[in-house]
Amino acid sequence: MEVLWLTEKEVRSLLTMDDAIAAVQKAFLDHGMGRTQMPSKSYLHLPDHNGDLRCMPAYLEGQDMAGVKIVNVHPGNPLIGLPTVMALLILHSPHTGEPLSIMGATYITSMRTGAAGAIAARYLARPDSHVIGMIGAGAQARTQLQGLSRHFQIDQVTVFDSFADRARAFAEDVLGFLKCDCIAVAGPEEACECDILVTTTPSRQPVVRNEWVRPGTHINAIGADAVGKQELESALLKRAKIVVDDIVQSVHSGEVNVPISEGILRPEEIHAQIGEVLAGKKPGRVSSEEITIFDSTGLGIQDVATGHAVYEKALQSGMGRRLELA
């Protein structure tokens, strides 16, 4: 028995944003059609180390793919030269249970999340959206913008980060892969003057106030992925059409978790899961004036589907190394 080992460098060389969007779109559609198994994330909270470890198993019955991702979130890691998020993905054969491949999944995590934001915006944002606001300028902000650029003609990007030098560095980086004006702004309110707003912070206090968001805005709320995290003021969610990636996971640990736990928002007020919108079971945007929010918590089906795309390309190209297990 052998397993194919793929390093982060090899994964990065194989995976494109177009690959990730195609894989995640199929995974969301399967989820919307009830063709997936995906237990909620299991968390190991590590308060003494300001972080956590998560286990994310998933089975896509329609595509016959199975696997599990183990991922951490340690916000202090950049201070010691490590990524905030690091991950490992194991793909298994649904037929025998044998492991097929083990691969670095830090890049997969970032790319599949950017792909999810792009897919959601395609269905929920105004088609003529051309100004993007970014709150948070870390690694995830980059892939969110890369994904959006596949579906929208982006003329301007405004970015705010609590570390001003990081916002300026991000603005310079954007010019390397996108032809547009990119401006680092002094406050989050300025970033909200946009057509599509993307929030990618680990905040536990709202960083976007209700009155800053104008009618017609779409928001990709990416940062809230654990109990107690919240980027958007609760009153803003009450104004908006909310679409989540997975209802159970979002109620537990997504952007909606705090307003629901406080009794401000009811789970029944969530409009749809994104897979239901893709499957035509629920409508996406229906007017140019409504505010739409995509609450992205990150799903194991996204990782397994994207990892399988990498695995298939590795087999075709002969990349990676075979390691004997038994």
Question: How would you describe this protein?
Answer:
With 326 residues, the protein is α/β, with parallel strands linked by helices. The protein has two domains: 2-109 and 301-324, 2-Layer Sandwich (ornithine cyclodeaminase, domain 1); 113-298, NAD(P)-binding Rossmann-like Domain (Rossmann fold), CATH 3.40.50. The protein has eleven helices and 16 strands. It has helices spanning 8-14, 17-32, 106-124, 139-148, 164-174, 188-191, 234-239, 247-253, 257-261, 274-278, 300-317; strands spanning 2-6, 36-37, 42-46, 51-60, 65-73, 85-92, 99-104, 131-135, 156-160, 181-184, 196-199, 218-221, 241-244, 272-273, 292-295, 321-324. The strands form two sheets. Strands 1, 2, 3, 4, 5, 6, 7 and 16 form an eight-stranded mixed sheet that branches. An eight-stranded parallel sheet has the order 10-9-8-11-12-15-13-14. Strand 9 (156-160), helix 5 (164-174) and strand 10 form a beta-alpha-beta unit.
